[in-house]
Design a protein that fits this description.
- The chain is an alpha/beta fold.
- It contains 13 helices and 12 strands.
- A 7-stranded parallel beta sheet has the order 8-7-6-9-10-11-12, sandwiched between helices. Strands 2-1-3-4-5 form a 5-stranded parallel beta sheet.
- α3 links the parallel β3 and β4.
- α5 crosses α7.
- The two termini are 20 Å apart.
């Protein structure tokens, strides 16, 4: 019986992927080294049914992003799984056009990302980065010069309230008694209320929040969402946190809002270029906490997302539709292509 072959490039996020995949006899996993000519990598990808694709734009060489051009080179490919909740390196519409199923691991790293976001909120309100910089520079003087604020009772605005946003809402509401506002056009007020927040439109969220935190994917409608005008609508002295994706917030506009004092501080885990150059203006600001897209890079989150991915490929290998399908419109075509490849129909 032909096994469902999954290929990954260079390395895996966690050993749990291989450990979980090994439990499925119908699944074969192959490593494709990146330290070889591009043509050799493409030749190896032509022999796989599933592509376990890096989700970070700047870690994956551009020729191996899942675009119409790459898909045209891979007529055998049936399924793409991203290595995280995001899938910036994959074109969902191109996958649908090619009959290729796309899945992600939404929710698998929600705890790690949510804790990171709340940790940034606390550190920024207590002005920890500024205090640390002053002490290390030998410039520590009056403690009152770094007067902080407490999170308890402050209004937290969440742009997006999926897996991560829901967990953030739970933490700040239960631990700190924070009222939570949420803007999410895909959810109704009752659903958002069940997730611990009050549904509002974007203008009300920006004007009414002491902390604004982003928890939404990068998409055409979210690109550039946090513009100069958006930062201007935020409450003066508010803080801004994002563990979402680069390009959703305008980095120069944020730098200007911070320099003017309108925004008090920012916590940034995601960037337009990852990592950003060391000369980036935001890296020079003492009231900014910066991390290198590491919110979800924990032992627990990595083990969880890779286990989820391996189980999704195992479902496909055994003739079942996996969960977390990004492009559900492709399912009938995917089912036809899978049946043609394996000589039997998908399980009902």
């Amino acid at each position: 019986m032909r096994r469902f072959r999954v290929g990954y490039l260079s390395h895996l996020p966690h050993q749990a992927f291989l450990d979980t995949a090994a439990q499925c006899a119908a699944l074969e996993v192959v490593r494709i080294p990146l330290d070889q000519p591009e043509g050799a990598v493409l030749a190896a990808l032509r022999e796989v049914d599933g592509y376990y694709c890096m989700a970070s734009r700047d870690e994956l060489p551009r020729p191996f992003h899942v675009t119409p051009a790459l898909l045209a080179e891979l007529p055998r490919l049936l399924m793409v799984g991203s290595t995280g909740a995001g899938y910036d390196t994959v074109d969902p519409a191109a996958c649908t056009a090619a009959g290729v199923l796309l899945v992600n691991q939404a929710g698998g790293n929600a705890e790690g990302v949510a804790e990171h976001a709340v940790g940034m909120m606390l550190a920024l309100l207590k002005r920890m980065p500024e205090a640390q910089a002053a002490m290390r520079a030998g410039q520590a003087q009056s403690r009152e010069a770094l007067m902080g604020r407490e999170l308890r009772g402050r209004t937290v605005g969440l742009v997006g309230i999926g897996h991560v946003g829901t967990r953030v809402a739970e933490i700040v509401r239960l631990a700190f008694g924070c009222p939570v506002l949420a803007c999410d056009p895909y959810l109704d007020a009752d659903t958002i209320a069940a997730r611990g927040a009050r549904k509002v439109e974007m203008d009300e969220l920006l004007a009414g929040s002491d902390v604004v935190s982003l928890h939404l994917p990068l998409a055409p409608e979210s690109r550039g969402m946090m513009s100069a005008a958006s930062f201007a609508r935020m409450r003066r002295g508010a803080i801004f946190v994002t563990t979402a994706r680069g390009h959703i917030h305008d980095e120069p506009a944020l730098a200007e809002a911070l320099a003017s004092g309108h925004i008090a501080a920012a916590g940034l885990d995601v960037w337009a270029q990852e990592p950003p150059p060391p000369t980036h203006p935001l890296l020079q600001m003492g009231n900014v906490i910066v991390t290198q897209h590491t919110a979800g890079v924990t032992q627990e989150s990595r083990a969880n997302i890779t286990r989820i991915a391996a189980l999704a490929f195992a479902d496909a290998a055994e003739g079942r539709l996996p969960p977390r399908i990004i492009n559900p419109d492709v399912v009938p075509r995917f089912a036809e292509r899978w049946a043609a490849a394996f000589g039997r129909a998908l399980a009902g």
